Amino acid sequence: MLTTLAVLMGLTGITPAAQAGGSEVDVTLVLAVDTSRSMDFEEIGIQREGYVEALKHKEFIDAVKGGLTGRIAIGYFEWAGYVVQDSVIDWQVIETEEDAIAFADKLEARPIATQRRTSISTAIAQGASMIVSSPFQSRRQVIDVSGDGPNNSGDPVTPARDKAVEAGMIINGLAIMLRPSDAPNGLDKYYADCVIGGPGAFVLPVRKIEDFAVAVRRKLVLEISDLSRPATVQKIAGAEAGTDCLIGEKQWRDIFDR
User: pLDDT over 90 for what percent of the chain?
Assistant: First the structure.
């Protein structure tokens, strides 16, 4: 199980298997989806529906076909304090509407469950490992992290992010802000300063449950098309003074120190 920063420590300088000869795609994209217990079953169900709907949407399929090769490779897993191993859906090439529907159907068929804690660092490690070992060659390698709280388990998030970025990957975020989070200045700012990284990295906030499907579709299209980010999308290159990227760990420790 990929639960420690050690997974990432050797990434810089590793040549992905795809570069030794494999299928060419425009993007290798890993969807890392939070299923921690801070979200209830209804919210996780709506999150799942959002991804399923986005993957089947014409706008997503048109974005795939509009690339240089007209195909992408996509993988998926769910995480909380650890990676949910039976949730991992290995790489699938998306080239046609039928491909996209088949992948979405695999997501839709998964049972809905929740797990304890939040380890964004573990999610990044899993995504990075999947990309490094993938059989594809692509212009962009993207880890797409959705979550509703700051890192509070496993290794700190910023070293994990930095190692993945040094290895040439992009980390984008979907900050689920349906409820108040443990991030004092807003979860979108925490994601912007502590989680995302790489050229053109961005985070999209979701504040209303009815906006989830549109936000997921918008994010996927941006990632696949590599379009210019609209001004409403937060895009921050590094942590700013005053952002505590260990806030989740400190709050969890305070619970047990009382």
Answer: 63
